[in-house]
Fold this protein.
Amino acid sequence: MKVKQVICLGCPIACNIEVKFNDVDDIKDENISNHRCKRGIEYAKSEVKNPTRMLTTTVKIQSEILELLPVQTSKPIDKGKLLECMDELAKVRVAPPIDYNQVVLENILDTGVDIVSTTEVKR
Ligand code: SF4
C-alpha cells in the first residue's frame, strides 16, 4: 500500500494528512488520518488523485501607470500544467481599460480555465 502526506489548505490549521491507498480512484475514508475535520478527507483524495492550484501571476500591460497586470486563474488548475501556463502567459499583452475580474485570456491551454485580472487599470 502506498502512503502519501498531504498538507490540507482548507484552513489555517494546515493538517498534515496521511493517505494510504493502492488505487488513486478507490481511496477509502478509513485510510485517511490526521485530519481534524471532514473537509480534509475530500481535500486529501483530490490532492492525491489530481492536485490543483490557483495560479496567481502577472501579464504585461501597456499602461501609463503599470508595467504588469496582476492576474489569476478563474478556478484551480492542474498542478502539472502550471509551468506551461506561465509560458503561455509570458506571451500575453493587454491594454487598458481593464476591469477587476475581466477575462484577459480565455480557456488557457484548453483547460476550461480563464485568466482574469485581479485589479482594474483605467489608463
Ligand atoms: S482538515 Fe479541516 S481542520 Fe484540517 S486543515 Fe483541512 S479544513 Fe482545516
User: Anything to note?
Assistant: The mean pLDDT is 96.
